[in-house]
Design a protein that fits this description.
This protein has helices at residues 315-327, 410-413, 432-449, 467-478, 496-504, 513-522, 528-535, 540-543, 564-572, 576-579, 598-611; strands at 39-45, 51-52, 59-66, 72-81, 87-97, 101-108, 115-125, 128-138, 157-158, 200-206, 212-213, 219-227, 233-243, 248-258, 263-270, 277-287, 291-300, 334-337, 346-354, 360-368, 374-380, 396-401, 455-465, 485-489, 551-556, 583-587. By secondary structure, the protein is of the alpha/beta class.
Length: 616
C-alpha cells in the first residue's frame, strides 16, 4: 500500500484487493512551490477487458512521467498467480527514468495457458517504493462456451507506482538492458484489439448505476447483444434471479433473432423479490452457435437488510478483559528513523512495540518536515499484507503492520504454517484475531502517547480495505472516543454464520470459505458450530453498534470474500447517530474492490472529516 503527495486539493485513495491483497494510493497537496505532480504513472491493458488469447497476447501499455530533478532508478519484480493462487511466473526488470522525462512503453506477459490470473508487481526506486495488483484472463478460440472462461473487467490503473519496462527484461537474463526515457512525449492512444470474429458481446446495465432498487421502483436492465458471427443467431436470453444462497427467485426470458454481424437492444424488467436483500442475476445467452452465462447482482431495499447477531452473552466482558490484559503489557515503544523511506519532505520512522503475550509488531510513522500540528491518519492493511510508509503533505500517517506480518517472527507466530484465519481457532482466548485486534488498539495508544511529535489528537482518522477495513471499524468500536471517522472499503469477517453458508454454497469456493472447509475436513473433531462460537467474538457485526463516528463504507455486490448482504447488514447495525452521518456506496459489477472514480470522493471525505474535531 503506497501513498504519495500530488498537486491536488483532494486526497485520493485506491483500494484494489484480490484474494485479500490491497493497493492504496492517496493524493494530497504538493509542497509549496511545486507546480507539477512529482511522479505520475498510468497502466492500461491493450484490451480494455484485460482479456487475451493466442492471437492477441497478454500485453500492457504504460506511461511514466518523472517531474523530479533526480532520475528514478531501481528494480521491478512481477509475479503471476493462477486462479488457485499458485505462482506460475516471476520476472524482474531494471528500471531507469531520467530526471524531468517521460517514458512511454509496453510489455508482454508470456502466459499461454487458459485461465484467470492475478499479476503482482513490487517496485523499488530511488524515491519510491510501491506495489500493484491486477487481473487478466487468457482464453482460447471462439467455441461453444460451456468451458468458456469468464471475462474480467479491468479498470485502468492510475497513480500507481512509477514503473518503466523493457521487453528485453522479460527473459530475466542478468545481462538485460534498462529502458531509459530520453525525451518527453505524449502517450499514444490506447490500442484496442478488435473483437474476435465468432463471438457474442453481451452488455447488461441496470437502470440505476448502483444497482440498488427500492419499493416503488421497477427493477429494469438495458441489454445489448452484438452478434460477431457470420451467420444469424436464433435463441433466447434468460435472466435468472437467485438469492445469495443460490435459491431461484424468478426467471425472465426474451427470444432472440439477430442477423449476422447484427445487434439487438432491449430492456427487461425483473419481478420484485418478496424480501429485501442482495440478489445474483445470471444472464444466460443460448443461440444457434453460442452458449454462455454471465454473473451480475443487484440490491433490493438494502436499508432493511438485517441478520441475527449471534452475540455471545459475555462479549463485552471478553473485550474488556482483553483491553485490561493489553494494559498490563509494557509496549516498549522503539522509534528509529528510516533513512531508506524518508524523503526531502517527510521524516519516516519505524516504530516497534509489543502487544498481548508480549508479541512484537511494527508500523511506519510518516511526518511532514514542515513544522506544525497535523491530523493523523492510521492505516490498516489487508490479510497478511505489509503496509509501507504513507506520505502526505497535510497529514501525519501511521501505517500499522500487526502480528503475523513481520517475517522475522514468522516461525514464532505460526510454527505449523496453519492458514492464519484458522490459527488457534479452537480457543477464543488464544485465537489469533484477539491479538491482531488488540494490536490495532496498541497502535492507537502509541499515537496518543506521542502527540508531541506534531499530532493533532483531536483529529484522528482510521482507514483500510478488506481486513484493514474491519480492523479500522473494530478499533473505532473499542476506542469510541479516539477515532473521528473511518473509511472502510470492502470489509470482511461480518456475520460469519450467513457469510460462510453463502461462501461454501458457491460453485467455486473462494477465500476464506475454501480455507475453512479444508481446515474442518482435516480436523474432523472440530465442528463448524464450535468454529462459529469462536468467530462470534470477532464478528464485525457485533462491534458495529459500538461505533460512534461517521463511516464511509463501500461494498461490491459480487464480492467473493464475504456475502455482500452480510456486509450491508453489518453497516445497518451502526447506531442511529453514527448512521445518520455515514455513507454507503454500492458497486454492482465489482467484487472485492472499488472503482477508480470512487477515490476522489474518498479524498473529499478525508478532508471534510479531518476538519471536524472530536467532542470530548
Amino acid at each position: 500500500m503506497i501513498f504519495h503527495p500530488k498537486n491536488s486539493t483532494l486526497i485520493k485513495v485506491t483500494f484494489l484487493l484480490i484474494a485479500g491483497i490491497v493497493l492504496w494510493c492517496i493524493e494530497g497537496k504538493a509542497q509549496k512551490g511545486k507546480t507539477k505532480d512529482p511522479v505520475t504513472v498510468s497502466i492500461l491493458p491493450y484490451n480494455k477487458k484485460a482479456r487475451f488469447n493466442k492471437k492477441f497476447p497478454v500485453k500492457y501499455k504504460i506511461q511514466f512521467v518523472n517531474n523530479l530533478k533526480d532520475p528514478q532508478e531501481g528494480t521491478l519484480v512481477y509475479t503471476v498467480l493462477d486462479n488457485s493462487n499458485q505462482e506460475v511466473l516471476i520476472n524482474s526488470l531494471d528500471v531507469k527514468v531520467n530526471a524531468k522525462k517521460t517514458l512511454v512503453s509496453n510489455f508482454e506477459v508470456p502466459i499461454v495457458k487458459e485461465g484467470n490470473y492475478t499479476i503482482k508487481m513490487t517496485v523499488e526506486l530511488t524515491n519510491f517504493n510501491s506495489s500493484y495488483d491486477g487481473s487478466f484472463a487468457y482464453i482460447g478460440p471462439p467455441r461453444k462456451s460451456k468451458d468458456r472462461k469468464p471475462e474480467i473487467n479491468q479498470e485502468p490503473i492510475v497513480n500507481t507506482p512509477p514503473l518503466s519496462w523493457s521487453k528485453d527484461n522479460l527473459s530475466g537474463d542478468a545481462s538485460r538492458q534498462a529502458l531509459n526515457a530520453e525525451e518527453v512525449k505524449d502517450a499514444p492512444a490506447t490500442e484496442e484489439y478488435p473483437e474476435e470474429e465468432g463471438e457474442m458481446i453481451i452488455k447488461l446495465k441496470p437502470f440505476k448505476k448502483d444497482g440498488v432498487f427500492y419499493d416503488g421502483e421497477k427493477i429494469k436492465y438495458s441489454v445489448s447483444i452484438a452478434n460477431k458471427y457470420k451467420v444469424r443467431q436464433d435463441g433466447t436470453f434468460t435472466a435468472i434471479v437467485e438469492t445469495e444462497l443460490g435459491e431461484t427467485v424468478s426467471s425472465t426470458q426474451v427470444k432472440l433473432k439477430i442477423a449476422k454481424k447484427g445487434q439487438k437492444n432491449f430492456q427487461i424488467e425483473i419481478p420484485k423479490p418478496k424480501k429485501e436483500g442482495v440478489y445474483n442475476l445470471r444472464a444466460a445467452t443460448n443461440t444457434s452457435t453460442y452458449d454462455d452465462t454471465a454473473q451480475y447482482a443487484f440490491g433490493y431495499n438494502i436499508g432493511k437488510i438485517k441478520t441475527p447477531y449471534y452475540l455471545p452473552p459475555d462479549f463485552d466482558e471478553y473485550w474488556q478483559n482483553g483491553l485490561s490484559e493489553l494494559a498490563k503489557v509494557d509496549p516498549q515503544y522503539k522509534i528509529s528513523r528510516d533513512e531508506e523511506h524518508s524523503t526531502k519532505y517527510h521524516d519516516v520512522y519505524r516504530v516497534e512495540m509489543k502487544g498481548i503475550d508480549e508479541f512484537p509488531f511494527y508500523g511506519y510513522l510518516s511526518i511532514p518536515k514542515l513544522k506544525g500540528k497535523y491530523p493523523v491518519i492510521i492505516g490498516f492493511g489487508g490479510y497478511k499484507k505489509e503496509v509501507m510508509p504513507l506520505l502526505f503533505d497535510e497529514y501525519i500517517s501511521f501505517s500499522v503492520n500487526v502480528r503475523g506480518i513481520d517475517k522475522k517472527h514468522e516461525k514464532e507466530f505460526n510454527p505449523d504454517n496453519i492458514e492464519q484465519i484458522m490459527l488457534k481457532v479452537e480457543d477464543k482466548d488464544a485465537y489469533v484475531y484477539k491479538g491482531i485486534y488488540l494490536d490495532c488498539i496498541r497502535a492507537v495508544e502509541f499515537v496518543y502517547a506521542h502527540g508531541h511529535m506534531g499530532m493533532d489528537l483531536n483529529r484522528v482518522l482510521a482507514f483500510g480495505g478488506s481486513q484493514g477495513a474491519t480492523m479500522g471499524l473494530v478499533t473505532a468500536a473499542l476506542m469510541p472516543d479516539k477515532i473521528n471517522a473511518v473509511i472502510a472499503s470492502n470489509p470482511v469477517f461480518a456475520d460469519w454464520k450467513n457469510s460462510f453458508a453463502v461462501g461454501k454454497n458457491k460453485r467455486e469456493l473462494a477465500f476464506p470459505s475454501d480455507a475453512i472447509v479444508r481446515y474442518l475436513r482435516e480436523n474432523p473433531d472440530f465442528t463448524e458450530e464450535q468454529m462459529l462460537e469462536t468467530f462470534n467474538y470477532f464478528d464485525l457485526q457485533n462491534f458495529m453498534p459500538k461505533v460512534k463516528c461517521p463511516v464511509l463504507y463501500a461494498v461490491g455486490l459480487q464480492d467473493e470474500f464475504i456475502a455482500p448482504g452480510s456486509a450491508i447488514a453489518a453497516y445497518n447495525k451502526l447506531p442511529y447517530d453514527a448512521l445518520s452521518k455515514s455513507e454507503l456506496f454500492i458497486f454492482p459489477d465489482l467484487g472485492h474492490e472499488i472503482p477508480v472514480y470512487h477515490n476522489s470522493f474518498i479524498g473529499i471525505w478525508f478532508n471534510e472529516k479531518s476538519v471536524s474535531k472530536k467532542k470530548r
